[in-house]
Amino acid sequence: MTVLVFFLYRNPKEMLAKVADKVSVLRMVVDRQSKFEATIGLGHTRWATHGSPTTSNAHPHISNSGEIVLVHNGIIENYDALKKELLKKGYQFYSETDSEVLVNLIQDVQQAAQLPIHKAVQQALDRVIGAYGLVVFDKKKAKQMIVARLGSPLVIGIDNSGFYVGSDPTPFLAYTKSAIYLKDGEMAQLGLDKKIEVRRIKNDEKLNPRREELQWNMDQIQKDGYDHYMLKEIHEQPRAIRDTLRGRMFADQGKIQISSINDFKNRFVEVKRIIIIACGTSWHAGLVGEYLIEHFARIPVEVEYASEFRYRNPVLFCDDIVIPISQSGETADTLAAVKLAKEAGSFIYGISNVVGSSIPRETHSGIYTHAGPEIGVASTKAFTTQITVLMLLALKLGELKGKLSKEERTKHLKELAGVPDLIDTMMAKKDAIYAIAKKIHKSANCLYLGRGLNFPVALEGALKLKEISYIHAEGYPAAEMKHGPIALIDEAMPVVVIATKKGHYDKIVSNIQEIKARKGILIAIITQGDQTVKELADYSIEIPESSQWLTPFFATLPLQFLSYYIAILRNCNVDQPRNLAKSVTVE
To answer: Between 20 and 30 A from 225 (CA), which of 102, 166, 307, 485?
Structure first.
């Protein structure tokens, strides 16, 4: 759903343009209307949460008086009760959204006490239950905007010409790299006089926010000749992994230098249990991390869906380390789980890609991946840089816990240092993967199987296919196939098996033979030179010989290409799949 409004001290209703369509369509609508000349603009692109994606439900929403305009990201949980109250007072509603309730609530509060707009917003938000990142404009205060956040990200870009507001900084990178990240429970008044005042919503206390210098640049968010961002980001993985390792790993010396661990060394030495919390692709990375940390450091690890963790009254101890993983640093469920764990007294060590985002600010310590901006909704380089960090973390904990000798550590670090170059060489296989995609892109279902470290990779491969091609896919531990999924296998079912020679090879060969006996279409990810599985498979993709602990890096790449090419052949919108957003910032 795409929306936009511009106005210049006139009736906002006269300066409104909405479309339930792409930004390109909106641009054509705006270009046809010469009235859109202004010094303040308010717009929003958002999926529908309350109501279907229609023009009437699109943002911005305007109050009944026609004087207050609002865009809102989040969910107002008590909107129904507020709406009934406003209906009794004679308010009319033209959409199905909770956001239209909020803009009229602000009007009602303002009119009842003749309040300035920032006070009306404060008092209205005091009655709201839910999450919001919002921007409000009042015609009577036409040289000012009000922004506020609670549970939904909001960042303010600042340059000599004025202000930019977004849920993340990428939309305004072309204009400024100076930004303020609002914290939960904060609001700001932005003026055309270039003044900014930040306050607490609850008590109106004035604050002195810290400006952040954004580390990304415009070159990083361009397609650079690629057809899609996802394709570009797949190709960027060698560079992203190198950047994540740079300054942290000194392979020849067998040394890992992570200051955020050194600063809290005793916490890591004494840890009895690690809990990883994440959602989606980050959860799959966390599963890889579980295998790595338990193997190299012998510390028990639990991997939790953040959305379940936050609601199930988890048992937490002060000597636990909780590791939230989030590409954006703004994932709503993960952020809520972080706050829960902090309240229980656990030590929080965050893994994120976005400097200054909410999760890094809420944690005691942490580490950034250096993937750079990831625009495509389906994560690619975020996943591989997350498992890079988790590999470093596992080896470092193994050192601190005395479970890993310097010789062993040096050996693993040298192998890890070679990963980016090996991934680079694998890019040449994409044409062969495209040929496989052409054979199976009309399938209705697909099964992904793996053992050990390759089980999370199977889950990730299945997720990628679901996300962008809309084919139903399931990832399963290969040994569990006989406990149900084998009933699905027939001549119409593609089965992707990660069958590398390292780790339970004989067992996976047995699984493959079971698939072939039931006439499944077998696509095997195999170690280079493996003739046994190659002869059994209908199609095979070779990956480099490596330690079993590095196979997730290499097995992931062909699965990313496979899902990408299948989506292309099915004419799907690769970078913007239906019903999905890049960062899930609402519950």
So the answer is: 166
